[in-house]
Amino acid sequence: MIAKTRFLLAETGQNIWRNLALTLASVLVAAVSLALFGASQLVASAVENATQRWEGGIEFVVFMKADAEQSQLDAIEVLLEGSPEVDEWNFVTKEETFQEFTEFFADDAQLLDTISVETMPPSFRIRPTDPDAGAVEALGSTFEAKPGVRTVVFATEVIREIQNNAEKISLVTLGTGALLIVASAIVILTTLSIAISSRRNEIEIMKLVGASNWFIRIPFMIEGMIQGIVGALLALPLLALARTYVIEDFSKSDNLRLLEGFQVSDGEFLFISLIVIAIGTAVATVGSIVAVSRYLDV
Amino acid sequence: MIRLENVSKEYSADSPALIDANAEIEKGEFVFLVGASGSGKSTFIRLLNREEKPTTGKVYVAGKDIVGLSSWKVPFLRRNIGCIFQDYRLLPKRTVAENVAFALEVIGRPRHVIEQQVPAILDLVGLSEKSHRLPDELSGGEQQRVSIARAFVNRPLILLADEPTGNLDPDTAVGIMRLLDRINRTGTTVVMATHDRGIVDTMRRRVIELSDGKIIRDQSGGQYR
Fold first, then answer.
1. I want to staple B21 with a disulfide (CB 3.0 to 4.6 A). Which of A1, B7, B134, B158 is the partner?
2. Which fold is adopted by the domain B1-80+158-225?
3. Domain segments of chain A: what residues?
4. Residue B170: pLDDT above 50?
5. Which helix (H) or strand (E) holds A202?
6. pLDDT of residue A155
7. What pLDDT score does A259 carry?
């Protein structure tokens, strides 16, 4: 068993070394395609995080003071219930807000230390019957002066536009990434077919002296898997760069205050990284299996 | 050891390579296959290690029907069959010893076995002094000895030889035949396809003659004719 393993690993190492340029190309294509795919997921997560409260046609949010009394909350509720201009609304409690907040800033312990359920503002998320900007503004401002209300925040045209554009960016990167992932599978397949054909004399002799089919296949399969997995591992630092320099900078920009919350939590980043590794491995596995079954006629 | 029953092999419908061949070869026999190019000698040999399957008929090796053998078992059949060829088929970037060791490495033999068996077999074929040379530093006869060492290092039951002296001058060929005769005397069945009249006539072993895919003569102690 040890002898076998050592031999198989040595064979794999030799394959890669002899085929170094092509292997590098294959790894890089895998890395770039996976990074693009991952980036599309990062953007999608960030957009979702930033625009979560604006989903479902919600046009403005009435934030209450953290210490607003129950009677003040009830008064707003009565107003909303009675208004024909309000299509739908829902109430977000202090606890729910706190929950969202902690999920969101899970990686910022310092910030989390300074907050508690008590300091969270409860809020009403409101969907008006008429989504026209003027009508929304007029309706929203009627709440601004009510007792207990801290502020009213509107979903402006800018937010809508950003949401749409970000979706487009995310779709384009996703599409490009997916195409490149297919390309990456084909490159891995081709690299292996060249590796196989450059070793056909050895393979012929292996068959002749009775090497088992798996013994012949395994070095090529490991080679293909390494290309996919190394590609995925190289994609991760690229993703981390994308997260730091593009997404986080957006959310810090003073001119883009509306993008507050346009960021990706550590949990989401980890999840996307795992998906990238899984896809890299899967693509390499498929490429390897197709290559050995097509080009290795054992 | 080897039995062919009504074996036919067609690569294309109009020109069969082997027609209704019947033969039985006992353990320890030495058999020459003779006949013109294209008479079916190579096909006969390729059927024995399952490089080819017959179109019809049965092939038995060591008592087992190898036609119906599932493909994952074929390697285990081949571990019992050594093969040598006119063109040696050595790996040019590996030394003599590495070429021989390769045959053991790829069937998963442990290193201590390899370290012990490779020098022993190189001694048997007379190449101990040249174990660290590369194939292209050797003469044709020496290269064929390396290929015999590789074929025999695993002590197979059967040795198949397809024109092993085809590229060698007569004196060198005699040396190779002495080696094959020695291997045959250890009890290994040898089946050798050849064009070399001198060798067949000198050795006087069983001769199976093929013509246009048919066995037209099967004679013990035969001549080339």
1. B7
2. Rossmann fold (3.40.50)
3. 2-52+160-295, 59-154
4. yes
5. helix A200-208
6. 74
7. 52
Query: In 10 A of CB A75, how many CB atoms?
Result: 16
- Starting from the edge strand earliest in sequence, which strands make up the sheet with B2-12, in order? B15-25, B2-12, B56-61, B64-65
What is the spatial distance between Cα A44 and Cα A36, in angstroms, rounded to a whole number? 12
Tell how many helices (H) and how many strands (E) occur in chain B: 7, 10
SS3 state of residue B179: helix
Q: Is the pLDDT assigned to residue A135 strictly greater than 60?
A: yes
One-letter amino acid identity for B205?
R
Residue pointed to by tokens 């030799």: A14
Query: In percent, how much of chain B has pLDDT > 70?
Result: 100
Please state, in angstroms and rounded to a whole number, the distance separating the CA atoms of residues B145 and B152.
10
Contacts of B132 (CB under 8 A, 6+ apart): B95, B96, B97
Please determine, looking at this structure, whether the domain spanning A59-154 carries the CATH number 3.40.50.300: no
In chain B, where are the structural domains located? Answer: 1-80+158-225, 90-155
pLDDT at A260 over 60: no
B35: left (phi over 0), alpha (psi -120 to 50) or beta: left
pLDDT in tens, B192-218: 999 999 999 999 999 999 999 999 999
Q: Write out the two tokens for B140.
A: 């044709």
When CB atoms are compared, the residue of B72, B107, B110 closest to A209 is B107
Q: What token pair was written down for B85?
A: 């060829």
Question: Is B78 close to A208, i.e. CB distance below 8 A?
Answer: yes
The CA distance from B37 to B51, in Å, is 19
- Do you know the residue count of chain A? 298
Identify the CA nearest to B91 among candidates A198, A272, A102. A198
**B81 to chain A, closest Cα gap in Å:** 8
Q: Distance between alpha carbon A57 and the CA centroid of its chain, in Å?
A: 24
Instruction: State whether B110 and A3 contact (CB < 8 Å).
Output: yes
Nearest residue to B82 via CA among B65, B115, B107, B111:
B107
Residues of A in contact with B98 (CB under 8 A): none
Measure the CA–CA gap between B32 and A106, rounded to whole angstroms: 82
